[in-house]
Design brief:
single chain; TIM Barrel; 5 helices; globular
Length: 196
């Protein structure tokens, strides 16, 4: 029986990207292939939070929420092959979105929607994602974003604090979007609302 390593399952509002404002079930997987200094969720590496679930146990837990939209996040979900799990949820009428750093797209290719937030810029894959999301601070070089050739939405999102917005970085991102209108602004609305 396949067990899923999950740190947290919760219900909230999507605060980022194209689907901002939608009530969604979040499944936060345990573990990540990177150690970003600006990571805004540390639960994915808290071994005390780690639980193992069967597919059916996850389904029973999320059936208690009214939304049929699931966001699989982490950590980094693509460190696991989740295609069978994604198909299982889809067969139960769930729309599956994934938030990924692009570690291994083959492991999540079954998803209905893929948000790609690359942290390494030398070999970005433009084929799998439905949207791009770049975490930007005021001191960051954005040439890798400016050089990206895609027709898919490209979001600029401020590097925020763990639970609150960083208004200096947000102001910087607003100026970038005004200067480069091919980009869209993502603000992590949930941090302004004070929800997970």
């Amino acid at each position: 029986m396949k067990l899923l390593k999950i740190a947290h399952i919760f219900y909230s509002i999507q605060g980022e990207g194209t689907n901002t404002g939608e009530a969604s079930v979040f499944i936060r997987f345990f573990g990540c292939n990177l150690t970003c200094s600006f990571c805004d969720d540390l639960m994915h590496k808290d071994k005390n939070a780690l639980r193992e679930y069967t597919f059916s146990q996850v389904l029973e837990k999320i059936k208690g929420f009214p939304s049929k939209r699931v966001i699989i996040t982490g950590g980094e979900p693509s460190i696991y092959n989740l295609n069978e799990f994604i198909s299982f949820l889809q067969e139960n009428d769930y729309f599956i979105s994934i938030e990924t750093n692009g570690h291994k797209f083959e492991n999540i290719k079954q998803a209905d929607w893929i948000t790609y937030s690359p942290k390494e810029f030398d070999d970005m894959d433009i084929n799998y994602p439905d949207e791009f999301k770049f975490i930007v601070s005021k001191d960051m070089d954005i040439n890798h974003i400016l050089n990206l050739k895609t027709t898919k939405p490209v979001y600029i999102q401020a590097q925020n604090n763990i639970h609150t917005p960083d208004m200096e970085n947000i102001s910087h991102c607003i100026k970038l979007v005004e200067k480069y209108p091919q980009f869209k602004l993502s603000v992590q609305m949930h941090k302004f609302l004070g929800v997970l």
